[in-house]
Structure formats: structure tokens, C-alpha cells
Specification:
Layout lengths: L1 E6 L5 E7 L4 H13 L6 E3 L2 E3 L1 E6 L2 E3 L5 E3 L4 E2 L6
Antiparallel strand pairs: 1-2, 1-5, 3-4, 6-7, 7-8
Length: 82
Amino acid sequence: MMVQFIVLGNGQITGLESVGPLQPDHINMLKAIKQHSCVWPVVWENRRVLLFRRKMIIFFHRDKKGKMKSLDRLEYRNDRND
């Protein structure tokens, strides 16, 4: 799944979305990425914070218990109440 998002001045992400065809499993993975996202490095240009759009590919699989895991060890369990 390819995603894109904007890194804000505080290192948080916004505008997270899938690039390309959206499948039902992708919605759950997007929720997990948003909940467990790390703080991204802020980009500076001429002593000003530069907001930029980042694209990345996330590979994931579903285990026998129904949990989705990415290579970065993000998890989404279907039993969570969001």
C-alpha cells in the first residue's frame, strides 16, 4: 500500500491517505499508522518550517489471528473499539 501525508511543524502527520486503489484492509492500516506514528523530523528552509508531502510504501500482512502487521511492526487488531 502506498500512502502520502504531510509532516507538520511539530513532527506530527496530517492528511494521511492511500495512493491508488483503496481496499477494506487499507482503512484499518491507515488508522493504525495514524495512532502509532512516530514523530517525523521537521524540515527547515531559511529558518522557517517547511510543510512537505511525503510518500512511502507500507508492506503488511494479516496473521492467523486477524492482526495486520507491517514491516515496521505497526499493529491493528480487529478487536479494538475505536
